[in-house]
Amino acid sequence: MVRVQSPEFSEPTYWTLDSSPQKPVALADLIHYEGALACRRGIRSAVFLRGFVASSLSGIAELAERYSGALFDLALADKALDRVSQDLTAVKAAFDASEHLRRAAESPVLSREQKESAFDAVMAHLGASKLTRHFIAIVAQHQRLDVLSAIIARFEAKLATHNGEAQADVVSAVALSSAQEKNIETLLGKALGQKVRLTTRVTPEILGGLTVRIGSKMIDGSVRGKLDKLQVALKSASQDA
Length: 241
Fold this sequence. Notes:
This protein is of the alpha+beta class.
């Protein structure tokens, strides 16, 4: 039995390999309850919706921080940081490669048990460690698979900081080869004067090229970014004419 801070609640929670945190109220239930209260009190739905969207975005970041922090602490204690990182990298690659997997994670139709069973099968297929499989099971039990990508990103950022590395998030229109990723790591490492850890994501909408984010700095070398800049320049030129 391991005593950790619950990802969703401030009270300590005990996790074992055959049990989940014993907490009767999920955040989704609280959101539903608050929404019902807002409607009963006559708060205008549009105002509530804007506030809900804003709070949801901040809520996702907070959930990702708490879940990733809990996993990082457990992996650190077990001296399994690199292994868990490898597991999460494999999960992320599976997400990027399978639209069906992404839809399953976000589906409001699939039950908690169906999602947990499906993702446990995926983790077994990927050969994930016992710790990672148990963590993913808990995420599924709490209906948080829709923020799994954000959790993985935060875990990788924590690992990079722990190892004294810079975290670079790279988005490309097509999947990068291992050689390309290594080349980008080397170039960024030389520019920053420190080792760089990459996380990659495929987004066809950028059309081509890359975008790189390191902390608050953004380097936009995408075709979409260049087209947007060209459009702005053409619009400005037509207004000056």
